[in-house]
Amino acid sequence: MLNFIKSFVSFFPISRRDTHVGVILYTRRAIPIFRFNKYYTRAAILRAIENLRYPRGGTYIGKALSFARRYLYPGRPASNRKRVTVVLTDGISQDRVSGPARRLRVAGCEIFVLGIGRGYRISQLRQIATDNNHIFTASFRSLGKVIQKIKSKACQKPVPTPSKHCSCKDQYFQLKKVYVQFNFLACLHTKIQVFVLTSVRLPSTMAVYPFDRVRAGRDISRGRNPSARIVGVKYGQGPDGRTDGSTEFYGRPNSYVEIPNRGKLDARYSITFLIWVYHNGRKGPIVNYNPNGYGVHLWMTSYRQLFLRFMHRDGRTTRPLRSNRLKYRAWNYVGATYDERSGIATLWLNSQPVARRRLGRVRLSTNYPIRLGAIRRSRNYFKGRIFCLQLYSVALTRKQIFEAKRKCFLPVPKPTTPVTKPTTPPPRVCKARIDLGFLIDGSRRTGSVTFRRIIEYVKEMVRRFDVQRSQTRVALTLFASSQRLVFRFGKSYSRAQVYRELKKLSLLRGRRRNTARALMYVKRHMFRGKPTCGRRRVLVLVTARETRDNVVRPARILHAAGIEVYTVGLGRVSVRYLRKIATDRFHVFVKNARSLLTIVRTIKDRMCHSPGKTS
């Protein structure tokens, strides 16, 4: 971000008559660096910005705004001089900002706000900015794209005699812990394209072990530590998409990785270790110094709970850090840091701090070999996949942890075999958020041939939806005189899972059908609870015969619960009977079993594009 500030300053001519720049550094308190009358050349200002170092501490924008009003804006503004403040932040201020921002605006200052990344709060940005048109957002990699927007907005009021450059006087600029101020006098409307590289420098690593098939247990850092001993594991898909891009543990005592430690992996004072984790078991060690006991260690203590403890060198324990935010059976970017200067330990998940604790001075127990997957002292073993263990002898910042995220990634190899074009184009996939339930006639009277055709119909329907946890979820129930819930919405997160369950289906024992009872069973066991906001509920009933039980009341209960009901009758099932169950007449279909697949596209299009109807 310092590169961003320097590029921004370079847009304006710096002199006694034109742009003035002042800088304030802040954490819990504001630290004055230089006023507007300190430097009058661009080179001197850029050198001063280059020498800035971020101090540690919290984010107190309110205090910084109040100090800036006293330090940089004493008295009334000079004639023909515009005051502009640009506030950059990547986090949430820990104090109130509305009052200091209002007083700064009363002092004649126009305030811009730039929120970076995802850690800011938009409501807080609105309290700081002059209005909504003065709010900008960007990622860390795209900071350079907003320079022209802010510059053009700040230079909107030219004087009658504009110069060839953007002649600006006193503008104010804040970067989380950095304030720079300019005031604009005049600006010609010229378009300038600027590209800014805002990369973060990473410190040297103690070790980097990718743990994939290509590099196996080798250390790819400059330290060239001994290769890890890999026992009883296999290779699986990694977070970068490669087929053999990670090491998979079986959750057994003879499935582990051990890294020798000849002194180069002994952090002792401060440490950061980062690793990609795909958890598929219950409990077990991810990273554990000391194969025979407990040094500094990171464990899984339940399906989603991370457990981090920094041990003293003499065996004394510290208070652990825990987090229940890990995603089960998914890739997670996990990190742990301890800083000796502040005494603070932090647990990171996907580049965000999820637990923090002040431990004081700790001499870290990192003078042992490292075990991953299993240790001799415990009967709990890690089951899942890991990728790219990185070790640093310093505590990394959030931006550095984010920068190291893709350190071990390799490009996914392209397939060597030519891809043959299908003879028929694949169907258009519906990406709507739908809970799609099927209620299938599974009585003996249906017959095995008709039942197989119904299953093929369900497969074809599922093929036309984007089946995953965040899009379409599928559930299925068979009914005859009794009911059987084959799988719920929470168990069908892919088409492959649904297809595997459909292959196992067979007819139920009973020959009689009870449709009314089946509809009530679906309401209680398939569509439980209240509907989720933004997710539609759809039920498809496929039956081969009419029943004499009263289906009107159960159907009304389903409609009242916000469930859209389609009915598909096979053979001689009357439309009148199906109409009693369906949402309306446009949700009723009658076909013979052989032509059942011809209505798949019609029903799919109505589900995907219709807003749905509820009674």
Automatic annotation (TrEMBL):
Residues 1-150, 435-607 form the VWFA domain. Keywords: Hydroxylation. The keyword Cell division does not apply. Gene3D superfamilies: 2.60.120.200, von Willebrand factor, type A domain. It comes from the Eukaryota. PROSITE patterns: VWFA (PS50234). InterPro entries: ConA-like_dom_sf, ECM_Assembly_Org, VWF_A, vWFA_dom_sf. Coiled coil: none annotated. PANTHER family: COLLAGEN ALPHA (PTHR24020), PH DOMAIN-CONTAINING PROTEIN (PTHR24020:SF20). Belongs to the fibril-associated collagens with interrupted helices (FACIT) family. This is VWFA domain-containing protein. It comes from Pocillopora meandrina.
